[in-house]
Amino acid sequence: MRAKAAVSLALILSVLGVAWASGFEEELSSRRSVLFVEGQELDGLVLGARARMDLVKLDADFVSRWAERLKEFPELDWASSEVFGKRGKALVLVKLLTYKPFPFEPERFSVDGRPAERILWPMGLKPPAEIASRQELVLGLVVDLPKGKRAQELKVAYGEYAEREQRGVR
User: Fold this and answer.
1) What is the DSSP track for 93-155?
2) In angstroms, rounded to a whole number, what is the distance separating the alpha carbons of residues 123 and 129?
3) Is 163 in a helix, a strand, or coil?
4) How do the domains of the chain map onto residue ranges?
5) Which of 38, 62, 71, 166 has its CA 20 to 30 A from that of 28?
6) Is 47 helix (H, G, I), strand (E, B) or coil?
7) 130 near 101, Cβ under 8 Å?
C-alpha cells in the first residue's frame, strides 16, 4: 500500500514539475522576440543581416514568480535584480550576434519610442564602437514600464530596425 502511495506521489510530483516547467517555458517564450539589423526577409528567412538581437523582456512580476527557475539561466539572472521587487520597471535583455563588422551605437536603442533609461553591461564591460564579425555580447536595457502595460508588450527598436516575433524567423 505504501509503495502504491509513493509511486502515486512521485507521479503527481513529476506531472506538476512538467506543468511548472512548461508554464515557465511558455511564459518566457511569450517574452522573446528578435531584431535584425539590415537584411531582408524572404519566406521567414532573413538574408544579408549585419546583426541579430535576441530580446527577452522581464518585469518584477515575472522575476518574482520564477526567481528559482531564473537561477538556471545565468544569461537572464545576471541582471534580473534590476527589476526584482521594483514595480514600474522593465528589463529588456539583448543578446547581440554579429554576422558582419557592426558599428555598435547603444544610444540607438529605443523602447516604445523612448530611449532606454539605463544600459547595463555584464561585469561593467562596454563593447568597442566597432564589433567584429561572429561576436556575441549581452546587455540589458532598463526602462520605465507604463502603468497597465506588461513587459512583453513593449516594442524594441535599434534605429529604424524594429523587432519581430521570434517564431518562424531564422
Assistant:
1) EEEEEESS-EE--GGGEEETTEE-SEEE-GGGPPPPSEE-TT-EEEEEEEEE--TT--GGG--
2) 18
3) coil
4) 1-30, 33-165
5) 38
6) strand
7) yes
Q: Is there a contact between 84 and 67 (Cβ–Cβ < 8 Å)?
A: yes
Entry field: residues in the chain: 170
Q: Residues 162, 35: contact at Cβ < 8 Å? A: yes
Looking up cell 502504491 gives 4
Could you tell me which residues are beta bridge partners of residue 42?
A: 45
Integer Cα distance of 11 and 76 in angstroms: 30
